[in-house]
Amino acid sequence: MLAAYAARIDATDPLSGLEVAERPEPQARPGWTTVSLRAAGLNHHDVWSLRGVGLPADRLPMILGCDGAGVDPDGNEVIVHAVVASPGWGGDETLDPKRSLLSEVHDGTLAERVAVPTSNLVPKPSDLSWETAACLSTAWLTAYRMLFTNAGVTPGDTVLVQGAGGGVATALVQLGSAAGLRMWVTSRDEAKGAKAVEIGADRAFASGERLPERVDAVMETVGAATWSHSVNSLNPGGAVVIAGATSGDAPAKAELTKIFFKQLRVIGSTMGSRSELERLAKFVAQQQIQPVIDSVHPLAQARDGFARMVDGDVFGKIVFTV
Length: 322
Ligand SMILES: NC(=O)c1ccc[n+]([C@@H]2O[C@H](COP(=O)([O-])OP(=O)(O)OC[C@H]3O[C@@H](n4cnc5c(N)ncnc54)[C@H](OP(=O)(O)O)[C@@H]3O)[C@@H](O)[C@H]2O)c1
Prior knowledge:
Distance between the termini: 11 Å
Strand content: 25-35%
Order of helices and strands: EEEHEEEEEEEHHEHEHEEHEHEHEHE
Bound molecules: NADP nicotinamide-adenine-dinucleotide phosphate
CATH class of the largest domain: Alpha Beta
Structural class: alpha/beta
Number of domains: 2
């Protein structure tokens, strides 16, 4: 079957290790189901994998991809949950110390077929398109948990999203505005800020710009480049929810004094549970949210989508059709 996979690790030139070519079919195993994928989404995680972050060379070749939607052997339309818990684990899969994401230990979704634990399949609401369903498993699920499980915000509160163009950032804006939150964004690019306003943000600011008032929560995936601004932007008692560090995880200043003096909450957030993915899919269908899609590419041309993400010139999700 056709697949996009990591053949080699290169920390500085991730695209050099990407191959789009034939791979063996997934092996049947008890308790697992093989899904025929219709669409799959790209995440920054896939680029990190090609750089060797979370994917050691001794596991190669590895099919990439955490997002996917397709049809199970009984003809049911399903969305794939990417967090694979260890056998016998009960409860929130993201808290299992032995969990992995698809494409870290087991082959991922950038392929014609993928095998996953049967319990990782979530029903796809019939009115979601394949492209929409393929956006939800990672960036959108992460955004859902950040906002609705971890931030402690309620309709009417103001939430700052650091970054405007990324998959997580656009998901945060679309989910938050649909839920009655006032969403503000920052961006290095004025045009991306303007697009964020078009999809539901209330206002956009330049990266690092002083805000007209403090916010109730900050959604942080940029990391070092925006950390001090995130801490400075919060109301006393506010929360910064951190789910990524695209620009690095060593900020020039940790801001410990401001964190304790303003009694801020710093909350780590990773992916979401299977039940959160099911609720996210229902919410997107009920609210008729159309996830912003940067570009759609046939799987055979997956390299084009990877190149767009590596260049950083992205607004919304990159989707591959199978
Ligand atoms: N914890 C989890 O479960 C989880 C899940 C998904 C993603 N993540 C992480 O979250 C981050 C974003 O993921 P994504 O898929 O949304 O990635 P992406 O599509 O590549 O987005 C990158 C984002 O970073 C922003 N950015 C701002 N300043 C930056 C800088 N100095 N350097 C680079 N980027 C900067 C960009 O905003 P502008 O271009 O508008 O400035 C954009 O919104 C990644 O680090 C990813 O690994 C974590």
